[in-house]
Design a protein that fits this description.
9 strands, Phosphorylase Kinase, domain 1, globular, about 350 residues, 5-stranded antiparallel beta sheet, alpha+beta, about 10% strand, Aminoglycoside 3'-phosphotransferase, Chain: A, domain 2
């Protein structure tokens, strides 16, 4: 099975020279997930792999960094952070039109909805605990030991990130959104002082970027490392809480309004406290800033997805256009967090 989004002949002939056991003919199937970097299952006989590529077309500078995704996951092999095996990175745009990498396909359970509706209520808490464990493991990686000490620049992480995402947001801006302007201004004036923490940061940590064992709550792989860097760990923690504050269902993928106690789901505070215990932290001051930042950054990301849909090079154009309406919602929620 081929796909119009991937030159199968070109990728097949290229990969036979770079991946042991990959033979022609090769078939490909595009995954529905992955708004940013189109993702495909490659099949050859009874074997399969996953290919992630930069999307075609004109892209924002530093976006869709498949080379960084490849590097960080390869560096984490054998660590307490579960990742797929990395097989090959191709940075030659002439092969299929953009850079791509190939990794192991993990056969596991994937959850789009943090309510975990397919899991029995007494069994749901274990998934939240595992999500917490893996997040703490990411932030406990010895950067020097795995060769990631230069994976991100030095300096104040939030200053750097706010400047970066404001720049990205301006580059994809389609109209003036007043709450977004207000949130940008507030964040700019309220960056916390450095506290000495510099860790690996996933950048998009949430349950739908994880694969779990088919018979237990054990995480088999953390995926989608495109936004990873070195920086401040509370950005990842706040991103989890931000997601849960969104409406439940296919679009929001949150837990707003859900009776978590009745549904066997962890509260925001319990998740934060468990994380702090795992990392030996007494607590987190000014968590509202980190939450506001998470809402801002996601709003900027969604604006970029929306702009790519308008430009005709989104991975899923229909869904990407719908994301445009959420930018204002994320900005408003960010302002509430700031209060």
């Amino acid at each position: 099975m081929s796909t119009p989004d991937l030159d199968l002949d070109a990728v097949g002939h290229y990969l036979t020279d770079h991946i042991d056991g990959l033979t022609l003919p090769l078939s490909a199937q595009k995954f529905a997930v992955g708004q940013s970097n189109p993702t495909f299952r490659l099949s050859s006989g009874d074997r399969s792999w996953v290919l992630r590529r930069k999307p075609p077309g004109v892209l924002l500078k530093s976006a869709h960094a498949v080379d960084r995704e490849f590097r960080v996951q390869r560096a984490l092999a054998g660590s307490d952070v579960p990742v797929p095996t990395m097989y090959h990175l191709c940075e030659d745009d002439d092969v299929i039109g953009s850079a791509f990498y190939v990794m192991e396909e993990i056969k596991g359970r994937h959850f789009d909805d943090p309510r975990l509706l397919d899991i029995a209520i007494p069994d749901r808490m274990a998934f939240f605990e595992e999500m917490n464990r893996v997040l703490a493991a990411i932030h406990s990686v010895d950067l020097g030991a795995v060769g990631l000490q230069d994976y991100g620049p030095d300096g104040n992480y939030y200053r750097r990130q706010i400047d970066r995402w404001v720049k990205q947001y301006r580059a994809s801006e389609t109209e003036v959104i007043a709450p977004m302007e207000e949130l940008i201004s507030w964040l700019d004036q309220n960056i916390p002082a450095e506290d000495g923490q510099r860790t690996l940061v996933h950048g998009d940590y949430r349950i739908d970027n994880m694969l779990f064992d088919t018979n237990s709550a054990r995480c088999l792989a953390v995926l989608d490392w495109e936004l990873s860097t070195t920086g401040h760990p509370y950005a990842d923690l706040a991103a989890v809480i931000m997601q849960w504050q969104m409406p439940p269902g296919g679009e929001g993928r949150g837990l707003a309004g859900v009776d978590r106690n009745a549904e066997g789901l962890m509260s925001d505070q319990a998740f934060i406290e468990m994380y702090c215990t795992r990392r030996g932290l007494a607590g987190i001051d000014r968590f509202g800033f980190y939450l506001a930042f998470a809402f801002f950054r996601m709003g900027a990301i969604l604006q970029g997805v929306y702009k790519r849909a308008l430009d005709g090079n989104a991975s899923d154009p229909g869904r990407a256009k719908a994301f445009g309406a959420y930018v204002t919602v994320f900005a408003q929620n960010g302002l509430k967090s700031a209060e």
